[in-house]
């Protein structure tokens, strides 16, 4: 998310594991050193437990499995460990984030799905840009606003070899991983509200996939104003919205999560096409609106900051 990289379903970050996402919203600063601390000890412990497991009778194993499945947090933790071990064994993808971070983005730790959806998002970005006569390779400074653990950014970098790419998100764990592994880009942990740490007139292309699908109107307008500040004159912005529940009201904001789990301003937002043209045009020129233009799920909105006269 915002910073949110709230991504899509077939991977919508709106549907990230709720409690892990809620933790990210506290904007805790996590150092890379703390993430790595004790890794060797933990791996040794896991190997020891696996050895013990192999000696347990089948009926006792079944009881243990059922007990673990009733504890969702423990079950997911063990599942992620198992998937990470399989990923290392297969080594089919480079620059692959851990299963837990992938799960936060798409509610699935599947490696193939992570890569495929990231590539599909880039294709959809290229398709939308082509409708206004632009190409990814034409931009010099790009911001992934809500980059998560880099699902889209990793794929996009293959098409922008000469651009400086930045990514920002409120999830400190995701940003820590990106900083350690995606050395071709720069990353920052974002705040829930503006401003960012970026200078004015900095980027000529900004994209935010599944970010504005979660903000209430107040936060939405705050962030549109901030994106306008950091965009260069003539810059292109690509945002996604969800129009599936927007009717006569034009903007619908639903409290879709367990009470107290997320802040009141972070739920599920739905925008009509008319609303986007009416409200977003106060900040940018609306160049185009493409229904289901992102991963055949969310609508794509192309905006432009007015060129300097």
Structure report:
With 309 residues, the chain is α/β, with parallel strands linked by helices. It has a single domain, classed as Vaccinia Virus protein VP39 (Rossmann fold, 3-Layer(aba) Sandwich), CATH 3.40.50.150. The protein is built from eleven helices and nine strands. The protein has helices at 18-24, 32-36, 39-55, 58-70, 72-90, 99-106, 111-130, 151-156, 172-181, 217-230, 273-279; strands at residues 141-145, 164-169, 185-189, 203-208, 231-241, 251-254, 268-271, 285-294, 298-304. The strands form two sheets. It has a seven-stranded mixed β-sheet with strand order 3-2-1-4-5-9-8, with helices on both faces. A two-stranded antiparallel sheet has the order 6-7. Strand 1 (141-145), helix 8 and strand 2 (164-169) form a beta-alpha-beta unit. The radius of gyration is 20 Å and the shape is globular. It starts with 17 loop residues before the first helix and ends in a 5-residue tail after the last strand. The relative contact order is 0.15.
Topology of helices and strands:
Blueprint: H1 18-24, H2 32-36, H3 39-55, H4 58-70, H5 72-90, H6 99-106, H7 111-130, E1 141-145, H8 151-156, E2 164-169, H9 172-181, E3 185-189, E4 203-208, H10 217-230, E5 231-241, E6 251-254, E7 268-271, H11 273-279, E8 285-294, E9 298-304
Parallel strand pairs: 1-2, 1-4, 2-3, 4-5
Antiparallel strand pairs: 5-9, 6-7, 8-9
What key attributes describe this structure?
single chain; 309 residues; Rossmann fold; disordered N terminus; two-stranded antiparallel ribbon
């Amino acid at each position: 998310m915002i910073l949110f990289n709230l991504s899509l379903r077939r991977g919508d970050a709106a549907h990230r594991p709720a409690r892990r996402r809620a933790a990210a919203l506290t904007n805790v600063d996590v150092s890379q050193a703390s993430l790595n601390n004790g890794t060797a000890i933990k791996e040794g412990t896991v190997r020891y437990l696996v050895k013990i497991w192999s000696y347990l009778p089948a009926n006792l194993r079944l009881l243990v499995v059922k007990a673990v499945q009733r504890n969702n947090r423990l079950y997911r933790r063990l599942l992620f460990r198992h998937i990470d071990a399989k990923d290392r064994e297969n080594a089919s993808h480079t620059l692959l984030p851990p299963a837990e971070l992938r799960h936060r983005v798409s509610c699935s730790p599947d490696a193939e799905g992570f890569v495929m959806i990231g590539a599909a998002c880039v294709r959809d970005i290229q398709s939308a840009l082509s409708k206004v006569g632009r190409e990814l390779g034409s931009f010099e400074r790009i911001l992934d606003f809500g980059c998560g653990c880099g699902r889209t950014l990793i794929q996009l970098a293959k098409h922008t070899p000469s651009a400086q790419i930045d990514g920002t998100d409120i999830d400190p764990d995701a940003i820590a991983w990106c900083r350690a592994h995606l050395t071709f880009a720069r990353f920052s942990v974002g705040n829930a509200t503006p401003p960012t740490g970026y200078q004015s007139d900095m980027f000529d292309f900004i994209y935010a996939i599944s970010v504005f699908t979660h903000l209430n109107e107040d936060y939405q307008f705050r962030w549109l104003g901030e994106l306008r500040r950091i965009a260069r004159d003539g810059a292109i912005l690509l945002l996604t919205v969800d129009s599936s529940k927007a009717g006569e009201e034009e903007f619908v904001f639903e409290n879709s999560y367990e009470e107290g789990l997320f802040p009141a301003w972070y739920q599920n937002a739905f925008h009509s096409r008319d609303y986007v043209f009416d409200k977003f045009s106060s900040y940018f020129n609306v160049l185009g609106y493409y229904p289901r233009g992102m991963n055949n799920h969310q609508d794509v909105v192309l905006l432009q900051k007015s060129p300097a006269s």
